[in-house]
Structures are given as structure tokens and as C-alpha cells.
Amino acid sequence: MLYFSKWKALAIAVFSGIICLMILPSVLPPATYDSLPSVLQRKIVLGLDLQGGSYIVLQVEAGDLRKARLEHLRDDARRVLRDAKVGYSGLAIQGDSVQVRVREGQDADAALTQLRTLAMPLGGALASTGQLDTDVSRSGDVITLTPTAAGIQSRTIQAVSQSIEIIRKRIDQLGTTEPSIQRQGSDRIQVQVPGLQDPSRLKALLGQTAQLTFRLVDTTMSAQQALQGRPPAGTDVLYSEDQPPVPYLIEQRVLVAGEDLVDAQPSFDPTTREPVVTFRFNTNGARRFAEATQANVGRPFAIILDNKVISAPVIREPILGGSGQISGNFSVQQANDLSILLRAGALPVPLQVVEERTVGPGLGADSIRAGIIASLVGAGAVALFMVATYGLFGVIAVIAVAINVGMIFGVLAMLGATLTLPGIAGVVLTVGIAVDSNVLIYERIREEARAGRSAISAIDAGFTRALATILDSNITTFIAAAVLFYIGSGPVRGFAITFGIGIMTTVFTAFTLTRLMVAMWVRWRRPQRVPI
Amino acid sequence: MRLLRIVPDDTNFDFMRFRRISFPISAILSIVALVAFMTVGLNFGIDFKGGTLLEVRYPNATLNIADVRSRLESLDLGEVQIQEIGSEGEVLIRVAQQPGGEQAQQAVVGKVRAALGEGVEYRRVEVVGPRVSQELLSYGIVGLMLAVFCILIYLWFRFEWQFALGASIANFHDIVLTIGFMAIFQIDFDLTSVAALLTILGYSLNDTIVIYDRIREMLRRYKKMPTDELLNQSINSTLSRSVITHVTVTLALLALVLFGGRAIHSFSITMMFGVVLVGTYTSIFIASPLLIYLGVSTRALAEKAEKDAQNAANSKAERLAP
Question: Would you say residue B5 lies in a domain?
């Protein structure tokens, strides 16, 4: 147990040293860090609880998604039946499916064939699994189209991927450093933005679908009349964001939508000096907008964002240049944010915030300070106690634990893991538990010496017997840490990481470094009696 | 230099006899803990209950707690807890989960911000919606059970089943007492508490296994020794290690409790209780004496060894047979 070949000793020292040195990139100034080769650009990331920032989880609403899908299906069915010149009646959404009534006989067969073309194979034509996204069935003269569960699922996953792209574009505009946007499960998005002073702006940017449409205002009756009676077919009553909200009667037909925008910028109206958003359409949008404004001079049209009327100006002259401006009593920041939203594009489905955790920079700084003080005090007290109990062997234990802690941070840096306040607690706790391996070895050595063995034989037997116990006892603790890593998130996961890594480095140092140091001491001093 | 020696070398305490005291004590404490858990209940934090938590600081002693209270009460948000913390004008505001789904929770922060006005530092804002809190709770419970199960499997592989069962009973006892402690002192029960419970579990087992390892070793070596005496010797010979490790872990935890900051205070306190007060006691006074009742004895082991040897001999004979 006490014999180490020169090469083995060197290998242990070099390996431990390299792992410890992996901390260096984390403490270098940013300029030096950037000049490192990319292999070495790995560092410990401070958790949001230490550097301050916002953690937000957004969820795609399955209900919203299903509703949008059904509406889409209904519109497609209408188009397909019209194109095929099949007579139908009662096309509507019924619960979780779309139903339509056709005449029995040939029409029904033709309609069924046509409607079946609406069912798309999942995973696209290339990676098709044979499953369809819609179930089309006929009983008598009623044809039912039902989105399949697998179809909704795949659309949810698609919607999440698209949303992540759009959210990334929106957040990038805020100019914060290193935001992280990740998928969580099948229908959630986890957004982490460090160092943000005011998360309400972030939430406003994330929570809006930003579906922009330009539509005509229906002037055949007033909005009040429509509210009391029945709004004409193909129109909706939408409200403005004023206090109290003003109702408008708006046509459902969309003249131009946000997809056709190529740019949006905040600026000031030259005459009123009010903040406005100026925008530019692409060719397609510009053409359609020009046609619509030409045909409707003198009529009001509405600019609608997420079913809210922002403004409803009257078309004074055809707008042919493909650009325009939106005014709506904005503050400078509102105009700024709206142009960010328009540039990034609309989310495919509405997202809802289901969890938010924000730590201000003040608390983060306090936590770092508390973590450092607790670590120093804890490590110092343990070190003093060990030296008082075991003397020289205590010093060896302290060195082993110090290298152990260095290695924990080195591994954290290599993994690019996140250090949280509970993570620091994990390190402090590891210090307490890591010395346990030394205690087990030393106590065993003492016992063996008491049983009458010579010093060297006692030390050798002490290591042999204690190491089996160390392995056994640490594996169970490691299982607990692994489970914690699996179920935890954020700060708790940070604890599981440092604690788990700490257990591994503890076993490593007990088997190699402590043994090596004791072996070197034995070779040097040739002790006659055990010094503990 | 004279070295510190907490446990004298010739310590020989009769732990086995002490079980007549420690078992009833543990039984009573477990019942107290269970009763506290059933009647008082755990003080669930927003992780598991949903709702909103805000930590705000009023600079330069401008905090007027009565004013804060009246402003927040006028919002009509249902149950609102306002607690002054620290000495630097800091207030912890907890708003219970609002009726009306995820969006209603989000509105709370805006309302509170509007009510408190300008010149306030928002140090921490947490909003957990009903769906997430449900999931976190089930994750926590599943996680605890999963951990216990995995550890059981490992112990079963590594030791005889009696040891696995003994360690599990001891562990269960630790968890029950810690949960009782959290209920009685109304310590916030949140995700970090689950982390604390799992760590207590791991640590307490670690301690138990060290003693079990020694018992197993003694069982192999001293086949004629009475079981009582063998268990006693095992505990006594590992006692010095138990105490020293106990001290080092206590020192580390004490540093966390005193200096680790409020964000992990409930975590540190819970660990302090579970590891320092319960964990070590359990391994020595509960886990090891339990083995007697579970049928661990020198005689049983000797019989098993004989049988194993017989089996080995038989199979060898079979293999040798043409």
C-alpha cells in the first residue's frame, strides 16, 4: 500500500495539478481569457443567485395550440371544399374536432378524398413514421376532422423551437450578456438572463405574442350597435388599450400582417414630436398594402397587436412606398420595445410565464460575500481541528483537502458548471466530509498500532482496511447527490453538482494523494512508532 | 506537541445495553415528530405552495412596517405575510397563490410594486405558478423515494439484507425526526429542504456504513464472540472516528449557519439538526443495535459460511466430474 513507483507518483501529482489549474481561466481578466485557445476557454459560471438576474419559465398552452390548429383546419377545409366545388353546410369546430355536413353520395366521397389531403404525415415526407397529424372520418353525411394527439405534440415541439428562435432575437436586442434560452421538457422554455435590473421589461417582451395585423374598420355600423346586436359576418369587436378601452368593429380579413415587415425602428413624429415606430414592408407586403389603401381612401383602417387596437387612422391617400409609421401614445421605451417585437417577429403561439425568480444584484453580491466568509471560516476551523488532533498527519490531511477543493473548482470549470450559493454550501460540506476519509485512515492506523503492529505495518494495514470503507460510505452519499441532480434545478442542482464532484475528488485524494504523502513521509523518516 | 484526543483509547461503553433507553426515546421522538407533522404541518414555501415572494429593502432607515402593511392590505390579495428581516430595512413579503391561473400570479408583482412606490430596492422576486408548484412537490417526493430505493438496492448488493433493512429503518427514523423538527419550528420547506433531507440521508448512511463495515469485518474474524459484545466492540472501535468526523462536519455546518447568509439559512439549520443531532446518534444507538433484532449473529453467519463452502465444494466437484 505504501509503495509508489516514481512514475506513478509523478502521474498523480501532475494529474491533480492540471485539474487544479483548470480554475485559472475562470479568474483571468476577460481580455486574457478571450485570447486563450478555445480548448481552454472553459470557466465556472456564477449562478443567477450570485450574480443577480432573472430566471423565467414560459409554457406553450396546449389549449391555445389546439384551438389555433382547429381554426386552421376549419379554414383549410373550407378552401379545399370550395376548390373542389363540393356543396357543404355547417362547417364548424365541435369540441376537439372540425365537422362538416355534405350531401350523401358522390359529393361525400369526393369531399372525403379532398379532405384527406389535409392530413399530413408526421415528421415531414422524409422522416415519415406513417402517422398522420389529422384523423379524417365519415359517418353518414358528416365528415369529422380530428387533430391526433401525436400531431398536436409534434406541433407543440415545433412551436417551442420557433419560439426559442424568436425569444432569442428579442432578448439579444436588450444587449444583456450571455442570456441562456433552453427548451425544458416538451412544452416549456427556460430563459435565464443575468444582470438585469428590471425584469418587468423582460417579461413584457417575452409575454407578448406580437402578432401585428393591418385590417379595415367596418363602418357599416358603429361598434356600439354591433355590441348590442350582432356584429356583421366576418367582423370582430376589438378594443384599444386606452382607459377605458374603446371598442372598434374590425374586419376579420387581414390586409397585411407582421410577417411582411422587414424593419421597424423607434423614432419621433416630425410634427407632433411623439415617439412612434416606423416600419418597412417587403415587396409582397408593400404591394398588398398599396392595393388596399388605393381601394379604400377615406376609410379608417386599424393597426392591431395581439387583438388590441393600437391605432385606427383614416387612409388619406394611397400608401405606395411600402413604409409607414405606427403612433399610439407611446413612451420612448414602449416605442423601442414595440420595434424590437416587430423586428423579431411574432411567436407562433401565446406563451405563459409559469415561474419567475429574480435576484437583484445587491442580494447577489451579499450572497457571494456570505459564501466566501462561510467557506473561509468553515475550512479554517476544520483545518485547525485536524492539526490539533493529528499533528503532522493533520497537516497532510489539510493539504489533501485543500487540493481536493482546488480540484472541485477545476472540475466545475472544465464542465462549465454553474456555481450557486447552495453550491458553495456543498463545497463547505465536502470539506467537512472529505476529512472524514483521512480520519478513517488515521484512526485505523492507530488501532492497528495498538493491536501491536510495527509503525510501517500499521500504516500499511490502516490504509488497506480504511479504503474499502471509504469507497462504500461515499458511494451511498453519491447516490443521494445523483438523485438530487436529477430532480433539482437552479440553485439545488448547483448544490448537487459540487457535492457530487466533491465526493469523487474526495475518494480520489484519499486513494492517491494522502497515501502518497504518507508514503513519502515514511520513506523519509522511517518511523519506529506511529505519530498519532 | 500533545495531540487532542477526544475519545480515550480504551473506551468501552455498553451501547447494546443502552438500546433499552435509546429505542424508547427514539420511538417517543418519532411519534412527537409525526404528530407535529400531522397537526402543525410543514411550512411549505412558495416552491410547493405557489405564490409570490418579494424581498425588498428600504434604504437609510425609511422602512415603516405599518405603512407597508396598510399599503399591501389595500390591494386585497388574500393572505399576505409581511416579515421584517435583518436590521437594514429589509422586508420579506409573501403573497399566497391567487385564484385565476398562471396570469393572476404574474399580476401580483406589478401590483405590489405599484403599491410600494419608488425608492425601494427589490432584492429578490419569486413567482411560482400553480402548475410548477405541483410538479416541484411531486418531483421532491419522487426524488426522496428514488434515493431511498437506490441506496437500498446498493446496500442489498453490498451487505446482507439485514444490514440493508437496518440502515433503511435508521434512515427513515432520521427523515421522520428532521421533518418533525421542521414542522415544530416552522422552517420553510422548499426545494433546498429536499436537498437538505437528501444530504442528511446520504451522510447518516455514510456514518452507518462505516460501523456496519466494521461489524461485518468482526463477524468474519471472531466467529465465537457473543453478538452483543461483537456489536459493542465494533461501535467502540469506530467511536473515535465517529466523534472526530462529527466535529469536523459540525464546524463546517456551523460556519454555514453563522455566516452563510439568509438565502441558505433554512438549509443550513435543517442540515445542522439532521446531521449533527440525529445522523450520528442514529448510526450508533439505533442502526447498530437494530441488527440484533434483525437476526445478525455470529452463529447465523458461521452456518451460512459453512453452507457456502459446501456449495462451492459441490460445484467444484461437479465441474471436476467428467
Answer: no
Q: How far is B322 from chain A (nearest CA, A)?
A: 40
> Domain check: are A259 and A126 in the same one?
no
Structural domain boundaries, residue B124: 51-128
> What string of DSSP letters covers A6-44?
HHHHHHHHHHHHHHHHTTHHHHS-HHHHHTS-GGG---P
* Cross-chain residue pair A421–B260, CB shorter than 8 Å: yes
Q: Which residues lie closer than 8 Å to A318 by C-beta, 6 or more apart?
A: A290, A293, A294, A297
CA angle B11, B16, B21 (to 5 degrees): 110
**Shortest distance, CA A319 to any CA of chain B (angstroms):** 39
Phi-psi map region of A129: left, alpha, beta (phi>0 left; psi -120 to 50 alpha): alpha
Do both A340 and A406 map to the same domain? no
Of B3, B151, B245, the CB nearest to A391: B3
Of A374, A476, A499, the CB nearest to B259: A374
Are the Cβ atoms of A477 and B206 closer than 8 angstroms? Answer: yes
* Partner-chain contact B131 A421, CB within 8 Å: no
**Are A483 and B126 within 8 A, CB to CB?**
no
Claim to verify: residue A12 and residue A78 sit in the same structural domain: no
Q: From first to last of the 322 residues of chain B, give the pLDDT tens digit.
A: 567 788 887 778 888 888 888 899 999 999 999 999 999 999 888 888 889 999 988 887 777 888 888 888 888 888 888 888 876 788 889 998 888 777 788 888 888 888 888 788 888 899 998 888 888 888 888 888 888 888 888 888 888 888 888 888 888 899 899 999 999 999 989 888 888 888 888 888 888 888 988 998 888 888 888 888 899 999 998 999 989 998 999 999 999 999 988 888 888 999 999 988 888 888 888 888 888 888 777 666 666 666 776 776 676 666 655 4
Q: How far is B63 from chain A (nearest CA, A)?
A: 18
**A94 and A25 within one domain:** no
DSSP strands (E only) in B5-156:
43-44, 51-57, 80-85, 90-95, 121-128
Does the predicted interface ipTM exceed a cut of 0.90?
no
Which residue of chain A has the CA closest to B266? A422
Separation in Å, CA of B117 to nearest CA in chain A: 14
Which of A245, A247, A242, A246 shows the shortest CA–CA distance to A231? A247
Residues of A in contact with B146 (CB under 8 A): 483, 486-487
